[in-house]
From TrEMBL:
<dbReference type="GO" id="GO:0003677">
    <property type="term" value="F:DNA binding"/>
</dbReference>
<dbReference type="InterPro" id="IPR004622">
    <property type="entry name" value="DNA_pol_HolB"/>
</dbReference>
<keyword id="KW-0239">DNA-directed DNA polymerase</keyword>
<dbReference type="Pfam" id="PF13177">
    <property type="entry name" value="DNA_pol3_delta2"/>
</dbReference>
<dbReference type="Pfam" id="PF09115">
    <property type="entry name" value="DNApol3-delta_C"/>
</dbReference>
<feature type="domain" description="DNA polymerase III delta subunit C-terminal">
    <location>
        <begin position="241"/>
        <end position="328"/>
    </location>
</feature>
<dbReference type="GO" id="GO:0003887">
    <property type="term" value="F:DNA-directed DNA polymerase activity"/>
</dbReference>
<keyword id="KW-0235">DNA replication</keyword>
<keyword id="KW-0808">Transferase</keyword>
<dbReference type="GO" id="GO:0008408">
    <property type="term" value="F:3'-5' exonuclease activity"/>
</dbReference>
<dbReference type="GO" id="GO:0006261">
    <property type="term" value="P:DNA-templated DNA replication"/>
</dbReference>
<dbReference type="InterPro" id="IPR015199">
    <property type="entry name" value="DNA_pol_III_delta_C"/>
</dbReference>
<dbReference type="InterPro" id="IPR050238">
    <property type="entry name" value="DNA_Rep/Repair_Clamp_Loader"/>
</dbReference>
<dbReference type="InterPro" id="IPR027417">
    <property type="entry name" value="P-loop_NTPase"/>
</dbReference>
<dbReference type="GO" id="GO:0009360">
    <property type="term" value="C:DNA polymerase III complex"/>
</dbReference>
<protein>
    <recommendedName>
        <fullName>DNA polymerase III subunit delta'</fullName>
        <ecNumber>2.7.7.7</ecNumber>
    </recommendedName>
</protein>
<keyword id="KW-0548">Nucleotidyltransferase</keyword>
């Protein structure tokens, strides 16, 4: 998770600027929703916001990180901050009642009291309604920060009482950089960062033997398609179908196949930076050279069509045989 200022600004530049402006212009409201996908840095930004609000020596809208309050926020020991996680599947009504009771008591220290609800979409009906009453009539100098990956699951009445701060997806180059720092090869980092948008999942895939095998099988198929239809059918029956038995595995494999053809299209336009498979550049450049834009467009269309047919539960063997014929058409006129 990002902690220092540079990392935060790289991770969520718009959100950090928004929070600094709120602080600088003293436009704090009593409730915020931090809404963003897993891995988008909501917790790290929330920590930054807490420190900014409580720091004793803020400079240029950045907390000092060294005063007593900053240190207590980082260690989770600040008496005026209360953080709630779901108890099992839900945030329960007793948790919210206890929270409100603490927030309405005289603070252990002067100043603002802040409560943070992690996975706020896990509020059940009773706890959501109890929280709503408190949001409608906050008691004293109290602020709420609700973190969620699924804002649509929050009651509309709760959403309307909070200022919505939307987190963007983490830029791909940052995930790649983090993976490379964890000793993942550049080629694998380039591939998994296309499939997963947060570090934890990307790291898991990068170290997963099944994913490495899927990547290898997909690349083998592209080479076979380039040769002839019999070769590609052989790979489908001997390697592809036995490897991707589950629907989700087949979906992922078709996505990986589509990314490969996107690479070829990008290389045709001389754009190497976007590649999912940098280790395949010489092969893909060769394919790009001998394939027209129209053929590549048809091939990508054929993969998208296969993905739709998979959703409709078409027979997988038939689906893949048909796809091989469609991909091969791209080369019959070369």
């Amino acid at each position: 998770m990002a902690h220092n200022m540079n990392e935060l600004e790289m991770l969520q530049p718009v959100v950090i600027k928004q929070i600094q402006t709120i602080y600088e212009k003293n436009r704090m409201v009593h409730a915020y929703i931090f809404d963003g996908e897993r891995g988008s840095g909501k917790k790290a930004v929330m920590q930054f916001f807490l420190k900014l609000l409580l720091c004793e020596n803020v400079s240029n809208n950045v907390p000092c990180e060294t005063c007593r309050n900053c240190i207590r926020v980082d260690s989770g020991n600040h008496p005026n901050i209360r953080q709630i996680e779901p108890d099992g599947q839900f945030i329960k009504v007793d948790q919210v009642r206890e929270l409100i009771s603490e927030m309405t008591m005289t603070a252990a220290e002067e100043g603002r009291k802040i409560y943070v609800l992690h996975h706020a979409d896990k509020l059940n009906v009773a706890s959501a309604n109890t929280l709503l009453k408190f949001l409608e009539e906050p008691d004293g100098n109290v602020m709420a920060i609700l973190l969620t990956e699924q804002i649509q699951s929050l009651l509309p009445t709760i959403r309307s009482r909070c200022q919505h701060i939307k987190f963007s997806l983490v830029p791909r180059h940052i995930i790649m950089q983090q993976l490379i720092e964890q000793e993942i090869t550049h080629s694998m980092a380039a591939t998994v960062s296309m499939v997963a948008n947060e570090l934890e999942t990307a790291l898991f895939l990068a170290k997963d033997e099944l994913f490495a095998h899927a990547r290898k099988t997909v690349l083998k198929l592209i080479e076979a398609v380039r040769k002839n239809v019999h070769e590609s059918m052989l790979i489908v029956h001997e390697e592809w179908l036995p490897s991707f038995k589950e629907k989700s595995e087949m979906e992922q494999a078709l996505d990986l196949l589509l990314f490969a053809y996107r690479d070829i299209v990008a290389l045709k336009a001389n754009m190497e930076s976007t590649c999912t498979y940098p280790d395949m550049l010489p092969v893909f450049k060769e394919i790009a050279l001998h394939t027209t834009h129209e053929q590549l467009s048809n091939q990508m269309q054929a993969i998208l069509q296969a993905r739709q047919q998979l959703q409709r539960n078409m027979n997988r063997t038939l689906l893949m045989e048909q796809l091989m014929l469609n991909l091969q058409e791209g080369y019959t006129f070369v």
